[in-house]
Design brief:
With 156 residues, the chain is of the alpha+beta class. It has helices spanning 8-26, 46-51, 59-66, 108-115, and strands spanning 31-40, 71-75, 78-96, 118-136, 141-147. It has one domain.
Length: 156
């Protein structure tokens, strides 16, 4: 007869409950929670990028629509303008056993091990939007590349 195992969701719930109980029993000073959002660069206007068309006069239109690029590279066919926007959402949960050792009656060796014991869970969602535009030697837009995954970046 096969052994019936509890569903994974029940195990996660039990683990979370046990973790919460241990944190509450350990006392103050042992729990660290960090929620952080970091953004770098200027947000790229997706509508402005989609409005650009290949084969049309371009450099001034691109600069008027998107502003100054982050990078400009020489290319055999003209120049490449690069726009970049980075986003990062971080969730960090940590428990330090050192703060709770004072409440336990343990040997000196176990106490010194527990004082240095840390548990950290970190979840990071990071991505970047990027627009790359090739302006030909004749001043026309020759190519446009764009991706904007940060609009769907999970919060935490």
């Amino acid at each position: 007869m096969p052994i019936e195992r509890p569903p994974l969701s029940r195990l996660r719930g039990a683990l979370g409950l046990a973790l919460l109980a241990s944190v509450l029993a350990a006392g103050p000073g042992c729990l660290n929670v960090t929620l952080a959002r970091a953004r770098r660069g200027d947000d790229i206007d997706a509508g402005a990028v989609r409005a650009l068309q290949t084969g049309r006069p371009g450099l001034q239109d691109v600069l008027d629509s998107l502003g100054a690029p982050l990078e400009v590279h020489a290319h055999p066919d003209g120049m490449i303008l690069v726009y970049r926007y980075r986003a990062r959402n971080t969730f960090r949960f940590g428990i330090e056993a050192g703060a709770s050792v004072q409440f336990l009656d343990v040997t000196r060796v176990v106490s010194s091990i527990l004082e240095n014991l840390r548990f950290t869970l970190e979840r990071i969602h990071a991505d970047e939007d990027r627009a790359v535009i090739l302006i030909g030697r004749d001043g026309l837009v020759k190519g446009i590349g764009f991706r904007d995954p940060t609009k769907d970046l999970p919060l935490f």
